[in-house]
What we know:
single chain; MetI-like fold; 15 helices
Amino acid sequence: MSSFAAAAYKEEFEAGVLRTTGSPTARAFRRLLRKKVAVLCLLVIAVFYVAGIFAPWIAPYGYSEQNLDISFSGPSFEHPFGTDRLGRDMLTRNIFAARTTVIVTLATITTGGFLLPVSLGLLAGYRGGWVDAVINRVGEIFASLPGLPMLLLINATMRPRFEGWVDRWANAVGWESLADSAFPQYFLIFLVLSLFGWVGGARLIRTQALTLKNSEYVLAARASGASTVRVLARHLFPNVLPLIIVGWSAALGAIAGTEIALTFLGVGVQPPHPSFGALITDGASRTVLENHPQLLLVPASIVASLIFAFNLLGDALNDVITPGSR
C-alpha cells in the first residue's frame, strides 16, 4: 500500500472512529458543526445574544441619551447607524433592543419552553389516569383561546395594575430602581407568552412518554422501586431531550417575533426602553422612510436575520438529531 493510500485510509478510519465514539450529544454536536449553514446561524445568534447580554458595557452611549442638535443624522463614525428624531444613537438603541429580546426569549423558553411542557408532558404521559386528564383539559382550555388577541387583552388590561403593585412593593422595600426599570413589562410579557406557549410542547412530550413508559428499562426501574421523579428524570427525560432541543430552536424565533409584534402593536415594552418593535414603528412612517431609511432597515434587518437564523438552525438540528426524518 502506498504512503498516500495509507494516509487516506488512516484519515478515513479516524473519522469513522470519531463518528462512533463519545456520547450521542457529542456526536450530534460534531455533525452539526460540519454543517456550514448551521455554524453561520449559530454565529449570528451568538453575536445577537452576546450583544444583548452585555449591552450596558458595549453600547457606546446610554439608550435614552439625547442630543437634539444631531437629530436625524446620517451614519457616521460617531454614530454608525445614525440618530433618531431625538438625537439618540441608533447603534445603542439596537443593542439595548437586543437586550429586551434576549430577556424575554430566555425567560419564556425557560418556563413556557422547558419547565411547563417538560414536567407536565412527562407527568401526563407516565402517570396517565386523572393526572393525564386534568393536564390535557387545562391544555385544551389554553389551546382553544385565540393566542394573539388574548396576549393583547391581558397585556392591555393587566399592565397598569401589575405596574402599580410593583411600584408599591419597590417603594416599600426601598428598591426604587426596580419601579423605574422595565421589569414589570418584561415579566408580564414572558408570563403571558409562557401560559399560551407550553401546550404544543407538552402534547409532543406526552406522546413520547406514552411510548417510552412501557419500555424494558422503565419497567425495570419501576420494579427496582424507583420513584416517579427518578423515572422521569433519569429514564424518560434523556429520551425526549432531542425533541426539546429541536423545539427550542423554533420556539425562540417565534417568541422573539411575538415580543416584537406586541411592541409594534403598542402593548409590549414601552418607551423609553428600546425594543425592536418600537424601533420599527418609529421608522415605518412614510416621511422617515423616505428621508432616513436606515431607521427602519437596520432594526428590520436584524430581526429578519435572527428569525431566519433560528429557522435554519432548527432544520439543521432536526437533520442532526433525527436523521431518519430526512
